[in-house]
Amino acid sequence: MIESIQNAVVNGKLKLITGAVQEALDGGASAQECLDSMTAAMDIVGAKFQANEIFVPEMLVAAKTMQRGVGVLKPLLGEGGAGKLGKYILGTVAGDLHDIGKNLVSLMIESAGFEVIDLGVDVPAEKFVETYKANPDTKIIGCSALLTTTMDAMRETVKAIKEAGITVPVMVGGAPITQEFCDAIGADAYTTDAASAAQKAKELVG
């Protein structure tokens, strides 16, 4: 039963996931076991992506499949189930309107077990700070930039977060961002893609 949930997510079988989850629940599996099986499936998907065995479209479909499966479980999980690793604030920095990469990161971070607070695109530095203050139990803040022209905005955002006395890790990513830039602006972690972002986020709270 549980295997069919995992297979549905790994293979992006959107139409089958609801039935697979319901069948496992009817067969005596707990909601948490079903969720853990989907999280494990997304780890497999992430590894396949990093090995270039699958690409962004497949990863997106897998993440959406998991989201649909989690939808079945939400009423049963109650508090602390789907977002059991804590809150993750995510946004594309001011001046940047790109959201495909950020949306994929959001899906993967959520699949890893976080509750994502997605601020969208063109997010001013103050908005990250305000959102953290409204959600002081947040575990990580993630900033995305897809244009070289908005790297300065990312620098300002990280600076504002640190100057506000916020001590949670700040993760950065996006096409022009490098490990060197991450170090230079004082961010805490850089990853090259959505799969490794989810992995790194789990490490940071682990």
Describe the structure.
This protein has 9 helices and 5 strands; from the N terminus they run ααααβαβαβαβαβα. With 206 residues, the chain is α/β, with parallel strands linked by helices. It folds into 2 domains: 2-77, Methyltransferase, Methionine Synthase (B12-binding Domains), Chain A, domain 1, CATH 1.10.1240; 87-205, Cobalamin-binding domain (Rossmann fold, 3-Layer(aba) Sandwich), CATH 3.40.50.280. A 5-stranded parallel beta sheet has the order 2-1-3-4-5, sandwiched between helices. Helix 5 (100-111) links the parallel strand 1 (87-92) and strand 2. Helix 3 runs antiparallel to helix 4 (56-77), helix 3 crosses helix 9 and helix 4 crosses helix 5. The relative contact order is 0.13. The mean pLDDT is 94.
Which SSEs are present, and which pair or pack?
Layout lengths: L1 H9 L3 H13 L4 H20 L5 H22 L9 E6 L7 H12 L3 E4 L6 H10 L3 E7 L6 H13 L6 E4 L5 H7 L3 E2 L3 H12 L1
Parallel strand pairs: 1-2, 1-3, 3-4, 4-5
Keywords summarizing the entry:
Methyltransferase, Methionine Synthase (B12-binding Domains), Chain A, domain 1; five-stranded parallel sheet; 206 residues; 2 domains; 5 strands; alpha/beta; Rossmann fold
User: Span from first to last CA?
Assistant: 29 Å
CATH fold group of the largest domain: Rossmann fold
Q: Number of helical segments?
A: 9
Radius of gyration: 17 Å
Described by strand count, sense and barrel closure, the largest sheet is: 5 strands, parallel
Spatial shape: globular
Instruction: Going across the biggest sheet, name each strand in turn.
Output: 2-1-3-4-5
Number of β-strand runs: 5
Structural class: alpha/beta
Q: CATH H level of the largest domain: which superfamily? A: Cobalamin-binding domain
